[in-house]
Write a structure and sequence with these properties.
Layout: E1 6-7, H1 19-22, E2 27-28, H2 53-63, E3 68-73, E4 76-82, H3 87-98, E5 106-111, E6 115-120, H4 124-132, E7 152-156, E8 168-175, E9 188-194, H5 196-203, E10 217-218, E11 220-223
Antiparallel strand pairs: 1-2, 3-4, 3-11, 4-9, 5-6, 5-10, 6-8, 7-8, 7-9
Helix pairs in contact: 2-3
Length: 225
């Protein structure tokens, strides 16, 4: 299988005893070779782009009110409840599920006793989807009542040159325990309501030095209500 370069979340951890968690290089090189990009044919463009993100997801959220999503993986199912008081992030997540984006992705970074991060892959369909929508960003929706606890689902973001803490909407992570140092750094927009044991299994699989599982854990996403 051919392989590609990609970027994903940089997360800092409070512990000074674990150098690996303390800082992760923003640029991670995959062992895989770059996948040739297919030439795109002219298609009618979606109305979503990196300039109208808030207006688009405000309208989309009013028309798509679902709040529950299921991830099916080879290790089991994970059911997620999305918060209504983070409307842009909820609408974005539902949009990506309905568009089939997550079905092109996997859990690509796992760290025991820390996080399971998903929403990216080395499939050209994943990068093509992002490029189609100009890799838009979401403004943060920090809430005092939504903190990084066991089973919290939060959004990734770039740490460099991002003073507004804009969310990178295609990647998410699930915490397996309380991580207060991440509060008000990343938007928490949901929680696991069933299948936390599956998340624990995912974080404990064998992985490479870049925290990518040795055997891919692909995602199949569906709306529950």
């Amino acid at each position: 299988m051919k392989k590609a370069f990609f970027y994903f979340l940089v997360l800092f951890v409070a512990s000074c005893t674990n150098a690996k968690k303390n800082k992760v290089d923003l640029t991670v090189k995959s062992k895989r070779k770059a996948i040739p990009q297919k030439r795109k044919t002219a298609k009618k463009k979606d109305s979503l782009n990196n300039k109208n993100t808030v207006a688009f997801f405000t309208a989309y959220g009013n028309e798509n009110t679902e709040t529950k999503v299921r991830f099916t993986t080879r290790l089991g199912d994970i059911d997620i409840q999305l918060f209504k008081d983070t409307p842009l992030h909820r609408a974005n997540f539902i949009f990506l599920v309905k568009k089939g984006y997550f079905d092109t992705t996997c859990f690509h970074r796992v760290v025991p006793n820390f996080i399971a991060q998903g929403g990216n892959s080395e499939d050209f369909k994943t990068s093509n989807f992002r490029n189609k929508y100009k890799n838009y960003r979401l403004p943060p929706e920090f809430r005092k009542n939504h903190k990084h606890e066991c089973g919290s689902i939060a959004i990734a973001r770039d740490w460099d040159n991002n003073p507004q803490k804009l969310s990178t909407p295609f990647e998410f992570y699930i915490t397996v325990k309380s991580e207060p140092h991440l509060n008000f750094e990343h938007t928490v927009f949901g929680k696991v309501i069933k299948g936390m044991d599956v998340v624990d299994k995912i974080t404990k699989v064998k992985r490479g030095k870049d925290d990518w599982p040795n055997e891919d854990i692909f995602i199949k996403a569906e709306i529950l209500d």
